[in-house]
Design a protein that fits this description.
The protein is α/β, with parallel strands linked by helices. It has an eight-stranded mixed β-sheet with strand order 1-11-13-12-14-17-15-16. Strands 5-4-10-6-7-8-9 form a seven-stranded mixed β-sheet. Strands 2-3 form a two-stranded antiparallel sheet.
């Protein structure tokens, strides 16, 4: 826990200042005012929380023995074998293989002794929506090759792509060629594709508009690999191939697309400098209305068929061993280990059911949630694992833990941090772990289920290869570390089992963890605030900081209080936290006053932000769960506004919309969470969403 050097002053203020709330953040609810005065015991907890202790545990905790038992019991060899089996079919990434993978994973669950193993079938018709995500068209690939016809070249350079040998040679949702293939001249990507004459030609380049290629008459795309050009003989996997977004929807543009390596691209570029180059592609693929499978199985809790549930989820159906066969294999090993320990009598059966879900990323998750609304309501927490198991001796492979969006702060955030802080030093992992800062853009995964229209508090983990290699042919089982699989399985099993078994005593302990996280969040925020005040140069800057940084204290207090109460209401501890928050506001006021004196300025008045009168009148009501990929709207018709299918400021803002806050409050909370948004047109954006039917405005 990072503590500002003046923490002793903060503690003195905590003990001596009666709380007087000044300017409050535009956060709803307002800062707590109804807590009883803190008892000496609660104040002692507060002193401990801000005393500068390391976040690593100083002694045994309620999870220590569980972690040790799981570490001794997890079978990383079995997890690796299962990962390889999942990858063997998923690496071909078509819907026929997806069905086979689902059958294989279901059989693995049955062999592990799980109950209620089922394969569900979501739609894959390019039309049906779950949330506002349009489910993709089913697509099968039988074969695909790309070869140089002329000039004559050495045999080892003639065949540029072969799906059967290297599946990433073919872009997912590539269209077919006529039977027997099609031959044409290769050209470099022109600056203005739409208005170029590309009839009968292959176009070499990175990302290109399919509709522009079609209008220009191109045969298709020869895709350069750009993820890591130092991997000369690896190729990118292109799976972002819809006209308006990620997946291919009905009435999208069929386009032939093959992927080549950096070495091959360099070779073709040199050939083009010398003269004409002709290629032949032969691609056998088809689009159809099908289904998109998801698989689930459970350890049944003692509370019976209608028990609350804890969910462990990871996505299948991508080409990589790390992304994400390793994630699903680690979850399977976690739940297999728990089931074995329960049946051996080494662990009591939990009261709540533990469920494993393996599905298509985003699309499969939303289909599952729509199909099982009652079950979703009974699910108290989840952990998502995605792209997680690189070789741990390499820098860049540390585990990165993402917490809930701040609009959905939860006690499971603090619980996850505690598990990580206790477990990873136990196994001496070289590169330990970090907590993801959502202030930066993140590609994302199914880690936002805590948002209010779903309501499942969820933390997630990912890692890396140590080098840039995401969505490339480099992502094979050789890049998966069995020790990382072990660590993921232990963490996931401990999280799921402890939450599934938790009674009043355990919930109280997790609430206390959330209280300590509250101190950390408020204190670290205040430390940053004081640094900003010390650097301020004029009255306007100080006035802005006086409002904004005090409001940040209220913001952090409100969301961390919510997280504590989600577990157990601890009025005494929360009273101490509220007093501490008040002390931080006094520190900020004092720092502003001192800085004004240094700059020879008059008394500083707080300067609230002005988001405009229209923002203060608009109240947004969401219609459906989840993010907004805008996959029904061509980019040219989006008025310059971004999609928000994965983590982004627009997604964070959407999740702050609860039908009660006005848009000015939503904007302020979003900027508290992610920082200033550079004059983004929030009013225009939400009016755009309203016009297209994604949200309503409360009258």
């Amino acid at each position: 826990m990072k503590i500002h050097p003046s923490k002793r002053l903060a503690l003195l203020l905590l003990l001596s200042v009666s709380l007087v709330w000044g300017q409050t953040a535009a956060d709803s609810p307002a800062p707590p005012t109804s807590y009883p005065s803190p008892t000496p015991a609660a104040l002692a907890t507060a002193e401990h929380a801000i005393s500068g202790h390391d976040p690593g545990p100083s002694g045994p905790s309620p999870v220590t023995d569980l972690l040790k038992l799981l570490l001794a019991s997890v079978n990383s060899t079995e997890a690796f074998t299962n990962m390889e089996a999942m990858w063997a079919t998923d690496r071909y990434f078509d819907f026929a293989r997806f069905q086979q993978t689902a059958k294989n994973v279901a059989e693995m669950m049955r062999q592990a002794g799980l109950d209620d193993v089922q394969i569900g079938q979501g739609p894959a018709d390019g039309v049906t929506q779950n949330g506002f995500w349009t489910q993709p068209m089913a697509w099968d690939a039988h074969s695909a090759t790309l070869e140089i016809v002329s000039p004559q070249v050495p045999e080892d350079m003639r065949v540029l792509a072969d799906y059967q040998k290297i599946p990433t040679s073919l872009c997912q949702w590539s269209g077919p060629t006529p039977p027997g293939g099609v031959e044409g001249e290769l050209v470099l990507r022109p600056k203005d594709i739409r208005n170029a004459d590309l009839k009968g030609k292959w176009v070499l380049g990175h990302r290109m508009s399919k509709t522009d290629l079609k209008q220009a008459g191109a045969l298709g795309m020869v895709r350069e690999s750009g993820v890591n050009r130092t991997l000369l003989d690896e190729r990118d996997w292109e799976n972002d191939f819809g006209d308006n977004g990620w997946a291919f929807n009905k009435n999208d543009t069929p386009t032939v697309c093959l992927s080549i390596t950096p070495r091959q691209e360099q070779y073709l570029t040199e050939l083009l400098k010398k003269g004409q180059v002709k290629l032949r592609a032969n691609v056998d693929t088809r689009y159809y209305s099908g289904t998109y499978p998801y698989v689930s199985g459970v350890i049944q809790g003692t509370d019976g068929a209608d028990a609350e549930e804890v969910l462990s989820l990871g996505h299948l159906y991508e080409e990589g061993a790390n992304d994400n066969s390793a994630g699903v294999a680690s979850i399977l090993e976690a739940i297999t280990t728990l089931n074995r320990l329960i049946k051996e009598g080494k662990l009591p059966r939990p009261k709540r059911t533990i469920r494993m879900l393996a599905m298509g990323e985003r699309y499969g998750t939303l289909a599952y949630l729509d199909a099982h609304k009652d079950r979703t309501k009974r699910t108290i927490a989840a952990m998502c694992i995605d792209t997680p198991a690189g070789w741990q001796y390499m820098a860049g492979t540390q585990f990165i833990w993402s917490m809930n969006p701040q609009s959905a702060s939860s006690f499971v955030d603090a619980f996850t941090v505690r598990l990580a802080a206790e477990y990873f030093p136990m196994v001496r992992r070289p590169h330990l772990w970090s907590e993801y800062n959502r202030g930066a853009y993140y590609g994302g995964t199914d880690d936002d289920l805590g948002e209010s229209m779903i309501g499942i508090p969820t933390t997630s983990v990912n890692s890396g290869h140590g080098i840039p290699a995401h969505h490339t042919s480099f992502d094979t089982p050789a890049q998966v570390d069995p020790k990382s699989l072990r660590d993921l399985a232990v963490m996931n099993a401990a999280y799921a089992y402890f939450l599934a078994s938790a009674g009043p005593e355990q919930m109280h302990w997790m609430a206390e963890l959330a209280v300590e996280r509250g101190y950390d969040q408020i204190n670290s925020g205040t430390a940053n605030s004081l640094d900003l005040v010390a650097a301020a140069r004029d009255a306007d800057s100080l006035g802005h900081l006086l409002y904004w940084e005090k409001a940040r204290v209220d913001y952090n207090l409100a969301r961390e209080t919510k997280a504590v109460k989600q577990a157990v209401n601890l009025p005494q501890e929360l009273a101490a936290l509220a007093f501490f928050a008040g002390a931080q506001k006094v520190r900020i006021e004092g720092a502003v006053k001192d800085r004004a004196t240094q700059l020879h300025l008059a008394t500083i008045q707080p300067m609230p932000p002005n988001f405009g009168p229209e923002a203060e009148k608009i109240i947004v009501r969401r219609k459906r769960m989840g993010a907004l990929p805008l996959d029904e709207i061509p980019e040219s018709q989006r008025e310059g506004f971004p999609d928000s299918g994965f983590w982004s400021p627009t997604m964070a803002a959407l999740y702050w919309c609860d039908g009660k806050r006005n848009l000015a409050e939503v904007i302020q909370n979003t900027e508290m969470e992610l920082g200033p948004q550079n004059n983004f047109d929030w009013v225009g954006y939400f009016k755009f969403l309203q016009r297209h039917g994604y949200v309503d405005f409360v009258q």
